[in-house]
Task: inverse folding
């Protein structure tokens, strides 16, 4: 089962490598990983999407919590939450027909055209994982994809619930 | 103005403040300044090993026997990487250790400089935590933190990397040692949750067939006396893991022996038939459980551990209790004493009757009919000669299991072995570390012809520091445990498990300045042991030629339940 873990940890050199190392050392999956500082500059926040059965996910959560740098771990999938991913995609748009098609797909999916070249459009979309994948499928149907850049999922709890120090 | 110190002096000052008495290490380019600072003081003695791996095992043995943090000092690059096996050994058995590693100067890090290795990276999966120290002024704080992390919660090794420039003797700083360490990200749980304690006590007192299964946690947390009290107040049968031996005295009437792969029949049978298992500081290792799918299907498992990751990792605990053993056992004992419920004594009598029947099978018996010396009889004789009071440090293999089975350990910290990692070469340096801590005590290294050669160079260190341990080598001219598996599972094809061209160990011991005694036949054994144990001012290397065909029994049958066992060659329980 897919899980989204939000991790607050010390913003120190080596902290990220301990998280990544833990996953590879114990043969856990990383589907995506993002990291950045928080409003508190001494803390970083990592969002990891992973998958595994309940027993594995329980171990992952405990093992991450055990790392000395880690302040808090929250399994967002257990609660109401919002998840987003940023997609940047460059597609061929050589003629009127393909430009129109790409623009149409972009409109339907509420993506944006943020740059263009002589033969290409660069698009942006912020959404959940499923919508991004459908968007890419439709683009693939209309034209050829040149380059895909995905930020990985970030997530936050709904309502007043917060993960902070 | 405060007196100021250079980085090397700050390391020494901090170690002194942390009450370190011994450092085990080996000098090299990046730590020469630190060695110079060590030279100019007398509070801390540096023990010079012959290979850094041995320094880690010595520090480890020192720690296991005393409970204190073992301290290692190595230079950058090969010095540091030579420590890796010892760090992993300590990590697997949760031994508090601080490894100070040199590093090339900060401005050269990343340039593939001479003797540069990213030791923090290399050791990351096998440490509790590690530090790249980057400023001399933070040395005391980093060391205080390293020691705090090493010894609190579930203990473990901590690596501190010290680049050469911060040890520079010409730059001076204030010495600020923190009086206590507080970390927002690290607060090991001490007290068990009251609800869980209540559930645990109700399961324990409701049990008809209770077994207490205790592990290395009892030794590490110094809770042997509390465990004994708990066992006695419940009149519960108790088994110890390999790491937990000595937690309950091996001579205690409630002791069932070790459990697991080479555990006793009564211990494994009791586990398999228990209705409630109280696991204290044990981690349901695969060498205990055998096939987890078949593990104790009828038992309610109460699992107490300071490390939540140990709980329900391999075997699902029905009643998990996270907390320090000292506190949790006290909570359990208080709640049991205060409870109106009492354990069902009638059911317990039936349970003990059943256990006695298993015990009567005398599963550790062995055949002494042949002419060749049996390894088991050597261990038993050593037990008699030392009155069961010696520190027994073991290497890894058949001799390790024979020692664990046939030398009942009366006290915690008396039995020292590499249980989790199974590191051959551990025994001799570990024994040396114990001897450093307890120079007047009898310290044995029970080893074999394979293991002893993995750190044999330390015989030189023994001479230098007068570490007069007794080496009992059960020499079977082969890698006994490998050979046993090949006999049992590979139709006797002894692929690379025999030792050709063994050295003359007597001559080797003598070459290093020690006494060597060779024993070839049973008729010589008693006299040789008597002679060896009459010598206290020299290291004695006993090279005892034992029956190479002997196997360790009992032995769990692969993929079976905890109590599916071979009792002898071809005989199942």
Result:
């Amino acid at each position: 089962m897919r899980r989204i873990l939000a991790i607050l940890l010390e913003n120190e050199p080596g902290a990220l490598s301990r998280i990544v190392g833990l996953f590879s050392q114990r043969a856990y999956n990383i589907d995506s990983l993002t990291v950045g500082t928080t409003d508190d500059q001494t803390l970083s926040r990592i969002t990891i999407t992973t998958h595994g059965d309940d027993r594995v996910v329980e171990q992952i959560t405990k093992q991450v919590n055990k790392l000395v740098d880690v302040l808090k771990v929250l399994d967002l999938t257990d609660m109401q939450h919002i998840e987003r991913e940023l997609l940047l995609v460059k597609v061929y748009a050589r003629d009127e027909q393909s430009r129109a098609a790409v623009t149409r797909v972009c409109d339907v999916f509420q993506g944006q055209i943020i740059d263009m070249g002589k033969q290409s459009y660069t698009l942006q979309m912020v959404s959940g994982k499923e919508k991004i994948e459908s968007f890419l499928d439709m683009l693939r149907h209309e034209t050829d994809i040149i380059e895909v850049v995905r930020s990985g999922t970030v997530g936050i709890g709904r309502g007043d619930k917060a993960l902070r120090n | 103005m405060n007196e100021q110190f250079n980085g090397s002096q700050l390391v020494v000052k901090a170690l002194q403040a942390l009450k370190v008495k011994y450092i085990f290490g080996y000098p090299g380019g990046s730590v020469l300044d630190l060695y110079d600072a060590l030279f100019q003081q007398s509070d801390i003695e540096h023990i010079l090993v012959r290979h850094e791996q041995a320094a880690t095992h010595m520090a480890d043995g020192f720690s296991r026997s005393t409970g204190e943090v073992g301290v290692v000092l190595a230079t950058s690059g090969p010095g540091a990487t030579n420590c890796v096996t010892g760090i992993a050994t300590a990590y697997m058995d949760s031994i508090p250790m601080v490894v100070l590693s040199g590093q090339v100067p900060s401005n050269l890090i990343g340039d593939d400089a001479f003797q540069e290795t990213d030791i923090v990276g290399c050791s990351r999966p096998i440490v509790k935590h590690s530090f790249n120290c980057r400023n001399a002024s933070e040395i005391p704080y980093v060391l205080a933190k390293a020691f705090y992390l090493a010894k609190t919660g579930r203990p473990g090794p901590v690596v501190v990397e010290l680049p050469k420039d911060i040890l520079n003797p010409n730059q001076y700083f204030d010495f600020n040692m923190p009086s206590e360490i507080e970390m927002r990200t690290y607060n090991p749980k001490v007290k068990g949750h009251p609800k869980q304690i209540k559930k645990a006590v109700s399961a324990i007192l409701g049990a008809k067939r209770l077994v207490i299964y205790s592990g290395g946690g009892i030794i590490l947390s110094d809770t042997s006396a509390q465990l004994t009290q708990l066992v006695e107040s419940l009149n519960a049968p108790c088994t110890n893991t390999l790491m937990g031996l000595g937690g309950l005295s091996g001579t205690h009437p409630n002791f069932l022996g070790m459990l697991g792969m080479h555990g006793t029949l009564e211990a494994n049978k009791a586990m398999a038939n228990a209705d409630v298992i109280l696991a204290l500081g044990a981690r349901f290792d695969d060498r205990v459980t055998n096939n987890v799918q078949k593990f104790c299907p009828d038992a309610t498992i109460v699992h107490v551990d300071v490390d939540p990751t140990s709980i329900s990792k391999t075997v699902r605990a029905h009643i998990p209790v996270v907390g320090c053993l000292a506190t949790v056992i006290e909570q359990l004992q208080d709640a049991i004493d205060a409870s109106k419920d009492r354990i069902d004594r009638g059911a317990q009598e039936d349970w003990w009757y059943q256990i006695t029947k298993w015990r009567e099978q005398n599963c550790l018996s062995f055949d002494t009919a042949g002419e060749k010396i049996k390894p088991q009889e050597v261990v038993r004789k050593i037990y008699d000669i030392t009155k069961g009071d010696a520190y027994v440090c073991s290497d890894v293999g058949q001799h390790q299991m024979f020692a664990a089975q046939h030398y009942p350990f009366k006290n915690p910290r008396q039995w020292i072995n590499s249980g989790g990692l199974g590191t051959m070469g551990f025994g001799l340096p570990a024994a040396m570390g114990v001897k450093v801590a307890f120079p007047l005590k009898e310290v044995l290294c029970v080893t074999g012809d394979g293991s002893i050669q993995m750190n044999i160079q330390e015989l030189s260190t023994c001479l230098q520091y007068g570490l007069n341990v007794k080496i009992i080598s059960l020499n079977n001219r082969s890698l006994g445990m490998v050979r046993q598996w090949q006999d049992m599972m590979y139709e006797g094809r002894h692929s690379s498990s025999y030792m050709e061209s063994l050295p003359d160990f007597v001559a080797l011991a003598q070459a290093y300045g020690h006494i060597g005694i060779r024993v070839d036949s049973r008729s010589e054994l008693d006299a040789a042991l008597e002679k060896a144990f009459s010598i206290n001012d020299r290291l004695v290397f006993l090279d005892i030629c034992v029956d190479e065909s002997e196997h360790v029994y009992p032995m769990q049958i692969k993929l079976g339940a905890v109590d599916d066992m071979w009792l002898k060659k071809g005989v199942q329980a």
The mean pLDDT of chain A is 96. The helical segments of chain A are 15-25, 54-66, 96-108, 129-142.
